[in-house]
Amino acid sequence: MVNQESNVETSGNMVISDSSQESVMESQYQSQMESQYQSQIGSQLESQLESQVESNGKKKPSIPPLYGVYLLNSVTKKSCFYVGSTPDPCRRLRQHNGELSRGGAYRTKKKGYRPWRMILYVYGFPSKISALQFEHAWQHAYQTRHIPFDRRLNPGKKHTGSGTSIHSKVANCKLLLNSESFKRLGLKVALFNQNIYEIWLKNRYAVFTPIYLELNVKTNTEDLDNESVIKGGNYNQLKEFMESNDKHNNEYLDKCWGLYNDKLKRYCECLICEQDIEVNDSEYTLSVCTTKDCESIYHLKCLSDEFLKQEAELDKESSITTTHILPHKGKCKGCDKVNFWNMIVRGATHLQERLND
Q1: Which fold has domain 252-356?
Q2: Of the candidates 58, 168, 286, 297, which lies 20 to 30 Å from 222 by C-alpha distance?
Q3: What are phi and psi of 322, to 5 degrees?
Q4: Are 234 and 90 in contact, with CB atoms under 8 Å apart?
């Protein structure tokens, strides 16, 4: 079994000066790279809605049920932190704390640093690649192309730019969540104790975060002063979080499959174009409203165009002229409730995979 978890501990070589010339070059470079990145993410999502079978007969990797980037805090050394990524937060924390013989990272194995607690987890990435990009950017916030040069906390300062305090760690996380590269992926944030929640709210560096960002606060499961927790880690919190996330995803995926069996085996049409829906047609893949009691169904392409149209109208009202490749969210024409595109794609991909098995 291949270990999907990240052990990346790289360090950048580029140090950016404060000169106006390099600032202009940085801005041009970032604009170019952000455009390429958005195109890459768009291609990743679209490819997951096409045929799930490669030419060699192997299935393409689907959208992972859970993949995220985490922040650890040493219990014994309060000012020490570690950023990593994993699809299994509980197992990963056990590796960092030495409870599992394989895995972990060199920095977290140092004498006197264990045990570690996972205090923050950014999740909902559409692929391992996008999670690794977020992880690397957070580790190297002083020079990452994902944060504009003039918005970095300490631009170009290698030893302090990534942030040594919890406030700077949180601020850099927020900067990435609001960056052009990541803000439309529908990412969510889980916070695992009251202290990190208060720091998030305090927002010392006054970093803006998208109003639609979903914050999952877990402060009532385990007490920071609980001796049994300090000896190991906040494993119960992480297990409950993972179970809750699985339940939320599975309820929607089961709904998609149920609608297929109840309706789509018979004639059924798209609520937008009013044409028949063919589930196995990769261009016109079935998509289902994410609202629990709504049974509206669409061609995925029709819904994408509709959501982009809605976003364009809102942008026009706000004098924004940005053109997007994929939508972020939109309202269902049946129930008028907001649907997030990342969940729509997850349901469409899941249904295709089940039909292709």
Answers
A1: Herpes Virus-1 (3.30.40)
A2: 168
A3: -70, 135
A4: no
